[in-house]
Amino acid sequence: MKATADNRFAPFFCAGAILLSADGAVGLLTVVIKQPLPLSLCSPALVADSAVGRKNWSSDHRICCHSALLVVLQVLYLTVVIRRFCCNSALLLSCRCHTMTSMEPTQIVNACVDVILSGVRLLQALGLDPGDGKDHAVLNSRKDLKEAFIHFMQKGAAAERFFSDAETFNHIARAASEYPGAQLYVGGNAALIGQKLATNPDLKILLCGPVGPKLHELLDDNVIVPPESMQETDEFHLILEYQAGEEWGQLRAPNANRFIFSHDLSNGAMNMLEVFVSSLDEFKPDLVVLSGLHMMEGQSREVREKRLLEAVTSISDIPTDIPIHLELASMTDQDLMSKIMHQVFPLVNSVGLNEQELLFLTQSASGPHASLASWNGVPDVGIVSDILFWILKKHGRTMDKASDLTRIHFHTLAYHVLATVDGYWGNQIAAVAAGARVAGTQACATETIDTDRVFLKAPLEFVTSHTEAPSKISLNPGDPVAQWHREGISFHFTPVLVCKDPIRTVGLGDAISAEGLLYSELYPQ
Fold this sequence. Notes:
With 525 residues, this protein is α/β, with parallel strands linked by helices. 27% of the residues lie in helices and 23% in strands.
């Protein structure tokens, strides 16, 4: 293999093996499913009794759910075969095998059908001409749609917006679904994460929400949908994709990405959440993934605040021995983002987000680098590191805070960073590398990394901070996961082998987070 910037990192991500770190050893991990072992999966970071902490669970405790709970995994057993791996008390989340037990019907938000097509061609089919870009928090017309699409396409940035006018949206949706080459896929963060996890035949996923006939048809057989979650019609989200270098008038996209919009009232109002937490006692999950809180932006402020408070109450009642991961998505309302950060973050163990969500988060709470209006090209690693550090110090688990948050998985096109509070998570090298690998394979629709179809976009040198005395790191192709530490927080950085001509851009963040979770260790506390 030629030692070029395009492919010299490729061996690390190829061929069904992945680097693993445990007790200082580095080797190759192979997962083998064997017979059940009488072992619990793990225990999340337990917190002291607190008004804001999650409550202990009693056998007769039942609570109506108002949270955006999205994916539940029922875990039974694991074994692993590892070379050069000294096992410790932490159990590998990636090596658990899951099956379903009998359960009460549950209903979960944020499931839909994605209609994926060329954004430029759809706008042309709608009779719209290129022009100036402008961001809109809510789309009220075709003109707003065009301006918002141009605004983000010229940045090469992902975004998602609510379309307020039902009649206009339905007309656009019909035109999109009838456009030659338009494709229908599973959509919604919950369903996408569940669909990715379900590619492992030994996993069974419980997914609930507004599931119409088309979405039900598209779901993997390992994704279980209770009958009570079925509805007569599907919720459609329109995914307007563009390729790197694609032009429209004077506009040229710096890289491939997508713009999402919908008139999704079921997910936005979280209408199907009321029985989810009440099912946990019987279902006994070992992992809960939350998402869909961003969909509330389409609701009035009063409804939004009421539903968020109900969500917080329900999340608080999830048993403390069940790890919780929260996946963020594109938002425009700083007040809602700030409330999620202050009210929801302390109740979850892990958060996944991209560069747009990270910057919006710090802007919403006047955090570090909040004056930065937008990213200029590849996000600066030092700035990203500063914001991740601030989140975990301000809203994460510390000696002074009864918070469960101990892990953040940041993903952008060029690289990923996994930040964890020391003492709670292990196997970070494997987890961050697994996420980077799936980003390259899923975008190119290949089973393994094809070195002819990927390139390296990550910086080969960077500083780790802009707010304290930084370290300067140079990447080593033979060991490309860079590590640094800062006041009890560990950072693991890896470049991504970016697909040159991606087949599909939507859902990459969800796949990255799902894969990273599967390769993560959560130490018993």
